[in-house]
Amino acid sequence: MLLQFMVPDSIFSTHPHTFVHFLSTFSILMTLASLTVILLMAQRDWAGHHIVRNLRQFNPDWHSIAEEINQQVREPLVYSIQYNAYSRVLVTVGWIIRISNYSVELARVEDSRLIVVDSNQHPLLSNENNGLQMIDIRVESVSRTSKPFIIR
User: Which domain holds residue 114?
Assistant: First the structure.
């Protein structure tokens, strides 16, 4: 009701002629496009999704790998470290998982080789007098089923 007094014309229009009309039409079209993409991916069993592509590197039946990882993450023997606001590493009995804003990288523990790449001493990042040591570790697949990635 209040919007009607502020904008004399209708906001949604089939023929946009003002900037507000253009933005409202654009927002509706973008919403419909994103829903279409989601529906198409769901119909194709999420084949184009980047996490499913990562899981298929280990087994074409990605559902079984996802279920295995879900069960292991819920177990009490999970090592989890969050080293900044957007990146986290989980180490389960069978998997090393690096989660960041835009990717989820996986490696099987029995198929992984861990290589120390870099080590930095940060004296100001800790409450203790001896500081904090940050170690960059490269996780490589021995059988080359997954791409190498670096955890800290």
Answer: 50-151
- How many whole angstroms separate alpha carbon 143 and alpha carbon 102? 25
Q: Is position 42 within any domain?
A: no
Chain Cα centroid distance, residue 117: 23
> Is the pLDDT at 130 greater than 90, yes or no?
no
Q: 7-39 pLDDT, tens per residue?
A: 566 666 667 677 777 888 888 899 999 999 999
Q: How much is the mean pLDDT over the chain?
A: 83
Tell me, yes or no, whether 87 lies in a domain: yes
Are the beta carbons of 37 and 43 closer than 8 angstroms?
A: no
Number of folded domains that form the chain: 1
What whole-number percentage of the chain has pLDDT above 90? 19
Residues comprising the chain, all counted? 152
95 belongs to a structural domain: yes
Alpha helices in the chain (DSSP H): 2-6, 19-43, 50-56, 62-74
Query: Is residue 41 a part of any domain in this protein?
Result: no
The residues near 139 (Cβ < 8 Å, ≥ 6 apart) are 96, 98, 105, 107, 112, 113, 114, 148, 149, 150, 151
Strands (E), 85-131: 87-91, 95-99, 104-108, 112-122
